[in-house]
Design goal:
The protein is α/β, with parallel strands linked by helices. It contains 12 helices and 17 strands. The chain folds into 2 domains: about 100 residues, NE0471 N-terminal domain-like, CATH 3.30.2020; about 250 residues, Rossmann fold (3-Layer(aba) Sandwich), CATH 3.40.50. The strands form 4 sheets. An 8-stranded mixed beta sheet has the order 4-5-3-6-2-7-8-11, sandwiched between helices. It has a 4-stranded antiparallel beta sheet with strand order 1-12-13-14. Strands 15-16-17 form a 3-stranded antiparallel beta sheet. It is globular and about 80 Å long. The two termini are about 25 Å apart.
Length: about 375
Amino acid sequence: MPEQASGPQTPTSQRVGESRLPGVSRIVAVASGKGGVGKSTVSTNLASALHALGQRVGYADVDIYGPSAPIMLGVDGQPKPADSQGDMISPLEAHGMKVMSMGFFLNDSAPVVWRGPMVMSATKQFLHGVVWGDLDYLVVDLPPGTGDIPLTLAQEVTVDGAVIVTTPQDLALADVDRSVSMLAKVNAPVLGMVQNMSGYVCPHCSTRDDIFGGRPAEETAAALRVPLLGEIPIVEAIREGGDSGVPIVVGQPDHPASRAFLDLASKVQVAIERRAGASGSPEPDEIIHDKSRGVVRISWTDGATTEYALRGLRGWCPCATCQGHAGEVTFVETDDPKLTGAEGVGRYSVRFIWEDGHSTGMYPYDYLRQIADYPECKPS
């Protein structure tokens, strides 16, 4: 939104589009509530399974503090610049997939001692600064938890679906519930849950031991209110594949565990296509700034239209600068606020930019729908 209008009476508008990477059709994030649940093992085999099903696949290892793609996919080297300016870099390749990881820029013992802004900048670089080319799927391996990197991903690009990895432990369930809630808040659809390490079956006597707990996967999925996409057993061949740099789906495609990963990949494809054809939560379709009336008008994908007086829109800014950290949102009066622009943040909020330089307020879509009914936002 809005470039300078040709006259004071001319409304300016912005069509709100999705944040897409050039050439990348679908982005699938693989997340977990805590470490140690085998998230990277699942994500590398999911990517390999999608490729085995005939898809063009990229793999972005944005677990900046603990990158594992170089070892688990058996690829090393340093990415090279893709242009003369050095603004873009070319990914490496492994098993027919394009791969980018922080591990390509580190030696084996170098820790990543970075604060949030540097991590966020690296995440953006791995998304927008890589020449991914034409891909059907970009699988993004997120770090555990709900910190800067998952939020940056949601702000920078459209996430078509997220896969949650957990184990049968009660503690893992409590942690992954927070991840599901975070993804919901940033409008990243959760495709479902994968329960990893779902018991060990002895190859000699077929006795099953629930080493990490006996909670049924269906029960866990029901508690999280998400579909169950699959169960991956504890199999030594999976671990051996990760250590050797050849995922089991690539090295032993007929293994029962490989068939489980291929089934997972098929369910992910179906879930994404279903969501693409279904109408989700309403999102802004167009934002119009009518300067003559001092009003912002938003057209939504469900056909609704909401209007906001600039005084009310600025006064109900939800940022910490305006609201502090008390947890209760209150109205903040501002003298004669003037709007200069707006931009979408991922698929869950809009950032408004004001003439006095204030631009830290990110208004979630549901919050915008809510405050439209507040008296301060009603146009005179």
